[in-house]
Amino acid sequence: MVKNALQAQLLKAGLVDNKKAKKLSKQAVHEQRTGQSNEAELKAKIAQDKQKKLAKDQALDLEKKRLLQGKELKAAIIQMINQHKIRDIDGEVSYQFIDESKIKKIYLNQQIYNALVSGSLVIAKESEGYAVLPKALADRINDKMEGFIIVNNSEKNEQITDEEDPYAAYVIPDDLMW
Question: What letter does residue 92 receive in the DSSP assignment?
């Protein structure tokens, strides 16, 4: 009894005897069985590769979203600085500060200078230069993202006011310029 048409033709031609035909059919059945197990392993490997690719794609997507949110936040902060900066600051009094280990100098009027020294105003980095901002806005900007506020004298003033300050009794004259 022959299961395959090719085997039947080989038997008629006399090229194969019954024993070889049975052996070939058993080999075919065996290959089919082992092929099915290989297919299951192959399907499992394909599914595992799909899961890895999906996880990698999700991680890349999250990274892109995080970068995009960072850029949006930076643009919003720059817009806030441009909208709320104090515009009439030009004057003859120079104020020096450190930005990225370089000493910078801007010229201010006396009223802005006094407010800056007292800590009610701060200096923030702007796209083309520096902007003078109110302290409350600077606090909001620092809460959102660090790195924009360069000079904030209110922190220094809080640290200096100490009860054990040996020079607390000495008054510094207003006209003293360093």
Answer: S
